[in-house]
Amino acid sequence: MKLYQTTQAPNPRRVRMFLAEKGISDIEFIELNLQRGDNLSPEFRQKNPLGKVPVLELDDGTCICETVAICRYFEEIQPEPCLMGHTAVEKATIEMWQRWAEFYFMLPTGMGFQHSTGFFKDRMHPVKEWGEECIKNAPKFFHIMEQQLAKHEFLAGAEFSIADIVAFCTIPFGKAVIGMQIPDACTHVQRWYEAVKQRPSAKA
Questions:
Q1: CB-based contacts of 142: which residues, under 8 Å, 6+ apart?
Q2: Residues linked to residue 31 through DSSP beta bridges, in sequence order
Q3: Dist CA 155 CA 162 (whole Å)
Q4: Contact by Cβ (8 Å): 24, 74
Q5: What is the reported pLDDT for 191?
Q6: Alpha-carbon span 7 to 29, nearest angstrom
Q7: Residue 29 gets which letter from DSSP?
Q8: Which in 98, 136, 159, 203 has the greatest CB count within 10 A?
Q9: Would you give the end-to-end CA distance of the chain in angstroms?
Q10: How far is Cα 123 from Cα 40, in angstroms, rounded to an integer?
């Protein structure tokens, strides 16, 4: 299997962290330079017409795009340790938090970066005002997390899950690209972040 990725990008990091939690290592990593436009080549667009990373290419040539879809594939072929829930309630709760973390935390962080800096202005039309709005909105999710983590060890409850991976990978990315910091008042978020940072998978 091959994973097409960019090491510094947050979405491939989510997959690497998921794989590390699973103990899956028989993957060939193919590095793409996004700023150079490696992901926009005709060859890569045959694998993903949207030109995004990561992309998982199976041995039979099947390509799976989108971070959560790739993680779902590995969850299905290697169910343990479980990162997406055992029961119907666990699965739904984890997916809820994963989607919240993705849509209301990671996405505005990324859009804030892209639209305020013009990093990809050669392939998109950055809207500075939208970037500024996203930069204001992304940190609001810290307070949602704080309420949940005051009651639970991890975002979706007692067990570490893909929801934690999404939120965790967003924080250093947000700090690097838009200067986003965990608020001092969010002590439970800080406790959770430091605990997740100690997991071996956080170094993946």
A1: 182, 183, 186, 189
A2: 5
A3: 9
A4: yes
A5: 98
A6: 9
A7: E
A8: 98
A9: 17
A10: 10
Q: How far is CA 82 from CA 48, 52, 70, 74, 78, in A?
A: 28, 27, 15, 10, 8
Token reading at 98: 């994963």
Regions of the chain short of the pLDDT cut 70 = none
Number of residues in the chain: 204
> How is residue 124 written in tokens?
């998109």
Check if the beta carbon of residue 157 is closer than 8 Å to that of residue 90: yes
Per-residue pLDDT at 28: 98
Q: Say what the pTM is.
A: 0.96
Residue type, 125: H
Kindly tell me the sign of the dihedral angle through the C-alpha atoms of 69, 70, 73, 74: negative
Taking alpha carbons only, the member of 60, 89, 81 closest to residue 156 is 89
pLDDT tens digits along 36-95: 999 999 999 999 999 999 999 999 999 999 999 999 999 999 999 999 999 999 999 999
The residue whose two tokens read 């995004």 is: 52
pLDDT at 108: 98
d(CA 92, CA 89): 5
Local structure of 57: helix, strand or coil: strand
Q: Which two tokens stand for residue 22?
A: 């699973």
DSSP string over 146-184: HHHHTT-SBTTBSS--HHHHHHHHHHHHHHHHH-----T
